[in-house]
Design a protein that fits this description.
By secondary structure, this protein is an alpha/beta fold. It folds into 2 domains: about 190 residues, 3-Layer(aba) Sandwich (D-Maltodextrin-Binding Protein, domain 2), CATH 3.40.190.10; about 80 residues, D-Maltodextrin-Binding Protein, domain 2 (3-Layer(aba) Sandwich), CATH 3.40.190. It has 11 helices and 13 strands. The strands form 3 sheets. The protein has a 5-stranded mixed beta sheet, sandwiched between helices. β12 and β13 form a beta hairpin. The longest helix has 18 residues. It is globular, with a radius of gyration of 19 Å.
Length: about 280
């Protein structure tokens, strides 16, 4: 039996996600799967503001280098961590079925509205400020459980915002002293690819892996990533896009939140669709 090496970050969420991929590959391809764990630049630089540093690529670079060196066969990422551009020689081979894509307002129990919210994401800050005018923001870093403790026990802020997918995969459906309030898409547009696990490989190996991953998830994310590619957005840009059913939820710091209809043809030509919609919004 052949063996595949899966490159992953060492964070608890990354390891849970990579184990899901490893189990799927063992079953679908009848292979052994072994994890190769990395601490990325973003993991090491815990004091950095991801907004100021640009963010994108800080959690993926070491994994991609392992692929290019031949030390790993695939790399497992949270799709929302991936830049719009792939390094030459690497491609996304596929995605696991998408989890809940919403963001969740995690707020101290008993508070109707937060006065302070800890989040470094410009996308989340600009959108949540529409719900809570006058709210003040601060940075927060760390693994999911660390962030929950910082709000519940250390009271670094009244609330934070986390992805529902990460909470669900880690089994955090509740937390003592906190309320979890899922945010609808017309209040908080998710990041590109939010809720999806991306499997990256060398471009030459994509044909081997692509058939065993989820085509429906790729269908939507290919369109979302076309917007990301066209805009060149990173963590410093307040930007979100989410394709669900026949609707596109779009947020940009220059346009605000928009809700647009989609057709089947829009999904068939994601790059052209992204350029057309961005042009109509005055962004291209």
């Amino acid at each position: 039996m052949s063996k595949l090496i899966l490159a992953t970050r060492k964070s608890p969420l990354a390891l849970v996600q990579t184990e899901l991929v490893a189990a799927h590959l063992r079953s679908a391809l009848q292979v052994e799967a072994e994890l190769l764990k990395f601490v990325t630049t973003g993991d090491r630089q815990t004091e950095w503001s991801l907004e100021q540093q640009g963010g994108k690529g800080l959690f993926t670079g070491e994994l991609e280098q392992a692929l290019l060196r031949g030390d790993a066969d695939v790399a497992v990422h949270s799709t929302k961590d991936l830049p719009g551009e792939m390094p030459p020689g690497l491609s996304i081979a596929g995605y696991m079925p998408r989890e809940n894509t919403r963001d969740v307002l995690v707020i101290r129990a008993g508070l109707a509205a937060p006065r302070t919210i800890a989040t470094g994401s410009p996308r989340r800050r600009l959108q949540i400020a529409k719900l809570f005018p006058g709210v003040e923001f601060s940075e927060i870093r760390g693994n999911v459980d660390t962030r929950l403790r910082k709000i519940a026990d250390q009271h670094v802020a009244d609330a934070t915002i986390l992805a529902a997918a990460g909470l669900n995969r880690l089994g955090f459906t509740s937390w003592p002293g906190l309320d979890f309030r899922p945010l609808p898409f017309d209040q908080m547009v998710p990041a590109v690819g939010q809720g999806a696990i991306a499997i990256q490989s060398r471009t030459a190996d994509v044909a081997r892996f692509a058939p065993v991953f989820d085509a429906a998830t790729a269908h939507g994310i290919n369109l979302e990533r076309a917007f990301q590619h066209a805009l060149g957005g990173g963590c410093h840009t307040a930007f979100g896009v989410h394709a669900v059913g026949n609707e596109l939820f779009f947020f940009h710091e220059q346009t605000g939140l928009r809700r647009l209809p989609l057709t089947a043809a829009d999904f068939d030509s994601p790059s052209a669709t992204a350029v057309r919609i961005l042009h109509s919004l005055g962004l291209k």
